[in-house]
Structures are given as structure tokens and as C-alpha cells.
Amino acid sequence: MIGHEVLRVFCGPDGRHGNELGVVRDGAAVPGRAERQAVARELGFSETVFVDDPGRGEIDIYTPSVRLPFAGHPCVGAAWLLGVEQLVTAAGVVAVRHEDGLTRIEARPEWAPGRTLRQYGSVAEVEALEVPPPGEWIYAWAWQDEAAGTVRARAFPGRGDGIDEDEATGAAALLLAARLGRALTITQGRGSQLMAGPRPGGLVEVGGRVVPVEVQPAPPRAEGARRCRKGEARE
């Protein structure tokens, strides 16, 4: 298995919950899209990030089944891990700010993958939902306190790739804040927390807390494999 780090992104105020993210810092070790897709499938996270240039913040994002030009929780997690002021994604440059223990990104709503935003009449209705069959990507939400801008949400990717429910989904939070045109504090999944809201220039910001979980080092290569790589580099 490739060496990678695991983060929990959009943790609650107590540091619990959050959506796990796999990050392969040595993106050069997995150079092709097919190879990266296979690694993302093997790791099994809702998203895996490959870092192509840590100084520039250049990243590449995959679910177990598809490559994504942009996604929220991978960008927030990668920005926290790399400590950069911007990220370079396939969709475009993503501004980053770090403040009061939160990592926030700014992106355009049109960069976010398509989501069906489905409003329910109460928090209880959202919490009682069963996982729907594979199909459309559903972001189910209800107001906890509309005046305060607090929302209860759950996310059902509907992809059929083993991810029945996403614990915390930055792109969907971004789309919801864009639709409602106001700042939101969203509790999603078991207790993850996301902050989102409009920014100047048609941008939307989304952010939250990030906690490291573990580092899985790459297994050492056999001596013969190292010699082969060196021989290939000389050709």
C-alpha cells in the first residue's frame, strides 16, 4: 500500500467526528491517473488527495470511482496539512486562510460537483432518513435555527462505491451557502461541523477544524526494484 496520511476534516468543536481524508504527500510516486484511481479505490476514503507540489499547493483529488477537479473537504484538509495560502486544483486556484484554529477555503460554486440539495421541514426528519439506493447525490438538510443560520444536514453520495453516507461534505455546504446567500454553521453526519458563507466576487467560503489521525509509511522497496528504477532513469 502506498504511504499516506489520514486526517479528519470538519471536526466538531470537541475535536471529534469529521470526514476522514487520505493524503499521499509523494504524488510523484503515483504519476498516472489510472494508478491514482486504483490507489484511491484501495484506500477507500470518500476522497484521496495526491500532492504534486507542496510549495505551490498543487493537488489532485479522487474518490474511489472518479477524479474530481475540486472538492471541499480534500481542499480544507490539504490546506491545513501543507500550511499554504492557496491551492492549485484542476478547477482553478483556491484561496486559503488559517484563523482561530479553522482552515477556510474560497471557491466558485460552479466548481463544486453536482448535488441535489433537498430541504426537509425538521431536524428530526433529516435524522430519520434511511440511506437511499444508488443514484443521485443528495444533500438532505433542515434548519436548526434559521435566524441563527444553523443547519442540520446529511449527505448521501449515491455512487455505489461503498460510501453510503458522507460524514462531512464541503462542496455541498458551499452550494447550500451560495443558494441561501448567507453564512451558515452546519452540523453534518454524527457531529461534524462546517462553516460556510458568501464572499465577494461570487466566491463562497467553507471551512472547519482538521485533526491528524495517522501516518501510514510506504513499504520499503526491494533492492532489485530500486536498481530497476535507477536503470530506467538513466535510459
UniProtKB/TrEMBL annotation:
<dbReference type="InterPro" id="IPR003719">
    <property type="entry name" value="Phenazine_PhzF-like"/>
</dbReference>
<dbReference type="Pfam" id="PF02567">
    <property type="entry name" value="PhzC-PhzF"/>
</dbReference>
<protein>
    <submittedName>
        <fullName>PhzF family phenazine biosynthesis protein</fullName>
    </submittedName>
</protein>
<feature type="region of interest" description="Disordered">
    <location>
        <begin position="216"/>
        <end position="235"/>
    </location>
</feature>
<feature type="compositionally biased region" description="Basic and acidic residues">
    <location>
        <begin position="223"/>
        <end position="235"/>
    </location>
</feature>
